[in-house]
Amino acid sequence: MAFPTHRPRRLRRNETLRSMVAETRLSRQSLIQPLFITAGHDLREPIGSMPGQYRWSLDRLPEMIDTLAELDLPAVLLFGLPATKDTEATGAWHEDGVVQQATRLFKQRAPRLQVICDTCLCEYTSHGHCGYLTADGQVENDSTLGLLARTAVSQARAGADIIAPSDMMDGRVAAIRAALDAEGYSDVPIMSYAAKYASAFYGPFREAADSAPAFGDRRGYQMDPANRREALREVLLDVDEGADMIMVKPAMPYLDIIREVRNAVDLPVAAYQVSGEYAMIKAAAANGWLDEQRTAVESLTAIARAGADLLITYYAEQMVRWGCV
Ligand code: PBG
Predict the structure, then answer these.
(1) Residue 205 near ligand 1, beta carbon < 6 Å
(2) Ligand 1: which of 36, 49, 166 to mutate, judged by most atoms within 8 Å of the beta carbon?
(3) Above 90 in pLDDT, residue 144?
(4) Fewer Cβ atoms within 10 Å of its own Cβ: the N or the C terminal residue of the chain?
């Protein structure tokens, strides 16, 4: 008997065979493109630390909506940069907030595209934190819930298909669910950023969305990167409060968490490949140190393999253009 009997390499002999036995496939339907909407006119502002990503003013947004619709991407996740900021985060919940206006535009122009609105306050508060502050500079949990609920309702009223709270206040999913139901939006689902870590990988986003806290950091509400059991606790609480989908964020440094969450819940699991993950690939590729396309595809495949059903990624548009999905 010739040795060895078992030769796993038999199934790796050519491209077709390898693709037949691939255990994970990326699909266009699982991709969600984040977008930054800004106040102002005639803007398609490049974001320095995120090459290929732009801040769009409402009058220029139609060209991007048409592009995404032509590429047949299923969904966008909207973030807003308001003209002015205040302690009430008025820009977050105002009927004519940038995200509300953008949502209406999307629903008129490309009704099949699902609009996911990020529900948070840090882009809209003068101090850059995700809620009301106490005298000693902490974010006050319970009074902030009302502002978040108000924001979610205004987004639903504008036509949002999915509400995605990213603030990490305790009890916000229940508060938002109750408010949506009370206002007649009981059929609008909630995708909760359930396990959201206090991460250095959000750096480029804070430049993009002008949402860096004016003092301190977000470790008083976002999770400690050291914790795994706590992520499950956060996820189960959100499921209990009525979340329809669960998110883990960031993605690649937290593949173990994605897998744990996938095993623990039946709901769809999303993972967010955040700005810093994108920026690292871009920077290394720009230096000729990594092959951009292969690195992006491998990263997203790893995130899907870990158990994510939905991939929120700044590479969504590019993945379709590359023909990789
Ligand atoms: C808002 C929010 C942040 C991100 C998504 N929603 C920033 C933060 O929490 O500081 C980060 C996304 C990214 O880095 O791509 N709270």
Answers:
(1) yes
(2) 166
(3) yes
(4) N
Each residue's pLDDT tens digit, 108-135: 999 999 999 999 999 999 999 999 999 8
Contacts of 16 (CB under 8 A, 6+ apart): none
Determine, yes or no, domain membership for 10.
no
CATH of residue 297? 3.20.20.70
Give the count of domains, the chain. 1
Spacing, Cα 3 to ligand 1 middle (Å): 54
**Domain presence at residue 204:** yes
Q: If you search the block for the tokens 């790796």, which residue do you land on? A: 12
Question: How confident is the model at residue 2, as a pLDDT?
Answer: 76
Taking only the tens place, the pLDDT of each residue in 237-293 is 999 999 999 999 999 999 999 999 999 999 999 999 999 999 999 999 999 999 999
Q: Per the domain annotation, does 18 fall within a domain?
A: no
Q: Which domain holds residue 314?
A: 25-322
Active site residues: 196, 249
Q: Which pLDDT score is estimated for 3?
A: 84
126 domain-assigned: yes
Q: Find out whether the beta carbon of 275 lies less than 6 Å from any atom of ligand 1.
A: yes
Taking CA atoms, 24 is separated from 202, 251, 260, 309, 313, in Å, by: 27, 16, 18, 11, 17
Angstrom CA distances, 292 to 130, 153, 279, 304, stand at: 34, 39, 11, 18
Of 211, 223, 299, which is best to mutate to test ligand 1, by the most ligand atoms within 8 angstroms of its C-beta?
A: 211
